Amino acid sequence: MNTPASQPTAAPASGRAARILAVTSGKGGVGKTFVSANLAAALARRGERVLVLDADLGLANLDVVLNLFPKITLHDVFTGKAKLEDAILPAPGGFSVLLAGSGLVEYSRLTSEVRDQLLRIIETVAPRYDRVLLDTGAGISDVVLFAVSLATDVLVVATPEPTSLTDAYATVKVLATQQQRERISLIVNQVGKTGEGRVIRGQLQQVVDRFVSPSLPEGKGPVKLELLGEIPTDKSVREAVQKRQLLLEMLPGCEAAKGIAAIAGKLCES
Q1: Which parts of the sequence belong to the CobQ/CobB/MinD/ParA nucleotide binding domain (predicted)?
Q2: What is the CATH number of the domain that holds 193?
Q3: Which of 93, 100, 187, 222 gives the lowest tally of CB atoms within 10 Å of its CB?
Q4: Residues 135, 55: contact at Cβ < 8 Å?
């Protein structure tokens, strides 16, 4: 039985801190936040205590995806106007969320305050959950890269579009060279046919093998991309997004929902 999202203070059964997974992407519009929210719901269904932290501090939209209207956000915690515990909210799907405020220019740059506050918050919440998902911004800004650096695992979301793949490669390159990441997971969203994700992973791996791994310092690498799964193009996704509902709650039997559930299963096995 899942632990209710409104009771986030219990420590994981193992007594260890949560696995922290940064969900990121090279460009916007690939479904990163959609994946974060629905993956959290799928993990919660498997019995994990899950927290999703909206680490897109300047352009947050996790609240929109979940149809939540928070009175307290990370901005209030950062400025000392509210306690961290009061900002953790239950979300549909049986997980918890820490929401950021949208349009806050001061959080689009990595200041020492942002760095210290984000680090403090993650260190505080990690012992309370089995898994913390960091829904980062898109691209390779300082704020995004710092958020990713706090994670034990990294998941890059991409689509088959050429611009998405180019930006996904750029993200992998930066993570490998700046953070010495040797293992990066990949989800290919909006695939047109079964197996397309495997082909795309292979193409990206070839480019990484040719241009990234040889440039790493001696003793580092090679960089390996692991395909966690693919999510098919599904009209149900658009319907769920427009209704601000989780796909796994609204239409759990659709093909895209099945793809996300399979990804959650693979994560739990790793």
Answers
A1: 21-245
A2: 3.40.50.300
A3: 222
A4: yes
